[in-house]
Amino acid sequence: MPHKHTRKRTGGAKDFDLAPGAVVKPLAAFEHPTVFTKKSSDQPKKRKRNARNEDDTPRAFARLMQMQAGVKPRSGLDDGASRKSKKQKLGQEAPPPPTMPSKTITSDPTLKIQPGERLADFAARVDQALPMGGLTRKGNTKIDGIKERQTKTEKRLKKMYAEWREEDVRRKDAIEEFQEKQEELAEEKETELGGQSLAFPEGKRKKRKRMLGETAMDDDEDPWAVLKERREKPKGLHDVVQAPPTLKVIPKEKFKVRNGAKVNVANVPANAGSLKRREELGDARREVIERYRSMMKGTR
């Protein structure tokens, strides 16, 4: 079935019930292309702004100017709202803000572009000449009148570094005092001997007690000397052995004890059989070795 969409008749009384002297003119079929008119509904609505936001200064720049003037920055949300004092909350009049003395701006003759200078170099010189230009650079830049904030970790580290420096100074002072005392003792001995200095043979000297903060690296002795003695020296390709090697750790023979009876089964594998069988094989092995040694002595 066809779907019939009836038009809504609105304002029908205005169309046919007109005054006798009224002249009805037809509406324009289309708008003239040369006329660019927009309806009021198509125009974007202007955003409402509060009176306190009339100042279009960027907040970051305003914050920097306040810091330069010595005003303590507020700790809270930076939404542009001014912080009310206690007097304003109680209804009293707050004192007017302190006015900074106006400084006469003197034009720097060096801040002029030089002939043949690039714009990038000129812009860099201008940035360096700005009073707050140091804030854009990395690093700790100290600003007069502004207290730097430090975390607990930074305070603890700075305190630790200061203690280390003091300890290092004390250690160096103690070493200098010890050396001065040694020199004074040496001079006294020379005066007692009539200005002659005796050179005594150097023997094993006692290890002096380390001062506060000294380590083994500060001593004159080589800390690796003990290990160098224990370790074997590297062998060359054409080195000739002068003597047979000496065993520092003498190997012990393994004896197995069963009910208080010792059985000599040294150097006999367990796969040979029982303990008695292994002991017999050990005796036969020793006899063969002794006969071989006696035979070799006879040939010499």
UniProtKB/TrEMBL annotation:
Comp. bias regions, Basic residues: 1-11
Lineage top rank: taxon: Eukaryota
Residues in coiled coil: none
Region (Disordered): 1-20, 27-112, 182-222
Protein name: Urease accessory protein UreD
